[in-house]
Design goal:
binds guanosine-5'-diphosphate, five-stranded antiparallel beta sheet, binds magnesium ion, 44% helix, Beta-Lactamase, alpha/beta
């Protein structure tokens, strides 16, 4: 999860803005050391370029934009892809709001940047909480998957789930709320209520063809009931010899299908990667998110363009001045 955000002035490393999202105290020696270092090598970082560095249990993701640096610190295992999107948005917004004031600013007078808090929160918290539903026939591995993601102990002996259970897991910038819906009730309509408001729905399969064919009905029903949800399949039990290849199951179901073995040692990382990718795809499909990040990029581009044309105007003016002097000299002769 995102632990906090810094905005620095590039040339001297002045901290213009800091917001912590987690109660945990930062290692101050570590952080101030990092901030000094990062402002030193900011000149090597091209404008708009984003890089990251891991220190102890934190990952610092940072980018240079015009005369500022934006730094997010997150948990060390987090994927910084989502943070990178946020960094670009924060940079555009911060430059848009304060761009002109940063240059003249005296190092001690950073209070005005506090007004950036709601703006930052809006960017960071946009779509952080996501409802993820695991649905599918009994014994395909839904409860196992939910428990692994939530870091709960998994028992090997099977217990049929009677009621939907909800588990939480935090990773990257997300707070995932996992809904584990019992497979026994899929004939009725009860489950349709439960998937409302989901961002992502995973139809979990035991990777047999029969199971995939039977699950087709659920897939088409999901898209009717939860219109905003992106639907994917998890082809679980890939460790079993009889498991069909995910690409074949994908053709049967008509939705992106990820292979998984929930009993593997790497299961948690594998599942988180599947969730990451599905969130990336589902967000890409959302017009609003697209429009917003496109707007951020557009603002940054326009600002660069204005700066360039200001420079060009000055150059043209200089040339005109030289020409005018030349004409005046020629007229004198
Ligand atoms: N071999 C194998 N067993 C699995 C896998 N995933 C789950 N299981 C086992 O299958 C049984 C049913 O899993 P469960 O998560 O309770 O299924 P649910 O009914 O869909 O919630 C349990 O005994 C699990 O340990 C897998 O990928 N491979
Ligand atoms: Mg279950």
């Amino acid at each position: 999860m995102i632990r906090g955000t810094y905005v620095l002035r590039k040339n001297d490393g002045t901290i213009l803005f800091h917001r912590a999202y987690s109660q945990e105290k930062l290692d101050e020696v570590l952080t101030s050391g990092f901030l000094v270092a990062v402002s030193r090598f900011s000149s090597e970082l091209g404008s708009g370029e984003i890089d990251s560095i891991v220190m102890k249990n934190l990952k610092f993701v940072y980018g240079a934009f015009e005369n500022i640096m934006i730094i997010f610190y997150v948990d060390r295992d987090d994927d910084d892809q989502f943070v990178r999107e946020d960094i670009r948005k924060v940079a555009s917004q911060f430059l848009w709001q304060f761009g002109d004031e940063i240059k003249e600013l005296k190092a001690s007078d950073t209070s005005k940047f506090k007004t950036f808090v709601p703006e930052l929160d809006r960017i960071v918290q946009e779509e952080v909480r996501v409802k993820i539903v695991l649905i599918g026939e009994p014994k395909v591995g839904k409860t196992t998957i939910a428990k692994i993601v939530a870091k709960e102990p998994v028992q090997a002996n099977y217990e049929a789930s009677q009621v939907a259970t909800i588990k939480k897991a935090a990773f990257d910038k997300f707070e995932a709320i996992l809904w584990d819906i019992p497979g026994a009730g899929l004939d009725g309509k009860g489950w349709e209520q439960l998937i409302r408001g989901a961002g992502v729905v995973f139809v979990v399969l035991d990777s047999s063809l029969e199971n995939a064919v039977r699950s087709k009905a659920i897939v088409s029903r999901i898209s009717e009931v939860a219109k905003g949800a992106a639907v994917f399949a998890i082809a679980n039990r890939q460790d079993q010899n009889e498991a069909a290849n995910p690409s074949i199951l994908e053709r049967v179901l008509g939705v992106p299908t990820y292979g998984l073995s929930a009993v593997s040692n790497t299961a948690r990382e594998d599942i988180i990667n599947i969730i990451r990718e599905s969130l990336m795809i589902s967000r890409r499909g959302k017009k609003k998110g697209d429009a917003q990040s496109a707007l951020g990029d557009e603002i940054l581009r326009l600002k660069l363009e204005v700066d360039t044309s200001r420079r060009e105007i000055k150059e043209v003016k200089d040339i005109l001045a030289v020409l005018a002097r030349k004409i005046a000299q020629m007229e004198k002769r």
